[in-house]
Amino acid sequence: MSKAIVETNFNFPRQRSVYKGKVRDVYNIDDKYMAMVVTDRISAFDVVLPKGIPFKGQVLNQIAAKFLDQTKDILPNWKVATPDPMVTVGLKCEPFKVEMVIRGYLTGSAWREYKAGARELCGVKLPEGMKENQKFPSPIITPTTKADAGHDMNISKEEIIAQGIVSREDYEQIEKYTYALFQRGTEIAAQKGLILVDTKYEFGKHNGQIILIDEIHTPDSSRYFYSEGYQERFEKGEEQRQLSKEFVRQWLIENGFQGKEGQKVPEMTETKIQEISDRYIELYEHITGEKFQKTVSEDVAARIEKNVTNCINSL
């Protein structure tokens, strides 16, 4: 099995700083660009698991790059180049402190709240009598605050505007973009026999212009169902066949881990790591409709350093 890249410590030309997130290491180049290295780290329940998943970084980076290219007619995005299978180099922006979560179906945390009696989510009124995995009459936006640490919190449009997190004018623009991006993602998914169930988008500003940032339509940021059998399963009240990293969460739950204090991550055997890696590659092939080409290198870190350095020197 190829070695997973879980740690990076690069020193690129004109590098100013580095930010290490749960999965991505983001290198600030000259306060103008960012080199985002998508590592093979994997997180669930806001916890980074102890072992990495080979090719996961490549899968996520390449899916996101593909969808950024397929949506740039809707609005500009941060991507400048993908010099390495695991890296996107893009514009450094001022991010909005909200994540735009959009849902086409009642599932996941929204269903859990609905089942517990909630009929309003982030200020959006929900119809009575809905069932799990039912399609909403039209997609709903349920934003969250973008926490620097800890959990993101649900928030309504009016609270975001009232608290001055995003101006009304900017919020209403990113709201329009969110619906348009989701519509495009839904159409692309349908061509692959998939349903884009829910996803999230992040936006920022560059020279006063709103642009799309971060990853889009990846299995880490989105939930997909298979179209075939959806209606039948829904009518019988059966679980849907999903294409997301939900299978990792389910494995953790079955083994007594949900990120709570005192809980221990189950042992990640070589077999389990291989299985998760294979599932991510399967996700890639379904979502893109293309065969995944594993990029195998003797020294992945040296390859990334060389590719990104060449890219930075050409900017």
Explain the layout of strands and helices:
Layout lengths: L14 E6 L3 E6 L3 E6 L4 E2 L2 E2 L7 H15 L8 E6 L2 E5 L2 E2 L2 E8 L2 H8 L4 E2 L2 E2 L9 E7 L2 E2 L11 H6 L5 H24 L2 E13 L2 E5 L8 E5 L3 H7 L5 E2 L2 H9 L15 H19 L11 H15 L1
Helix pairs in contact: 1-7
A few lines on this structure:
The chain has 315 residues and is an alpha+beta fold. It has helices at residues 56-70, 108-115, 157-162, 168-191, 230-236, 246-254, 270-288, 300-314, and strands at residues 15-20, 24-29, 33-38, 43-44, 47-48, 79-84, 87-91, 94-95, 98-105, 120-121, 124-125, 135-141, 144-145, 194-206, 209-213, 222-226, 242-243. The protein has 8 helices and 17 strands.
Detailed description of the structure:
With 315 residues, the chain is α+β, with helices and mostly antiparallel strands. Helices cover 33% and strands 26% of the residues. The protein has helices at residues 56-70, 108-115, 157-162, 168-191, 230-236, 246-254, 270-288, 300-314; strands at 15-20, 24-29, 33-38, 43-44, 47-48, 79-84, 87-91, 94-95, 98-105, 120-121, 124-125, 135-141, 144-145, 194-206, 209-213, 222-226, 242-243. The strands form four sheets. Strands 8, 9, 12, 13, 14, 15, 16 and 17 form an eight-stranded antiparallel beta sheet that branches. Strands 1-2-3-7-6 form a five-stranded antiparallel beta sheet. Strand 1 and strand 2 form a beta hairpin. Helix 1 packs parallel to helix 7 (270-288). The chain is globular. The two termini are 35 Å apart. The mean pLDDT is 94.
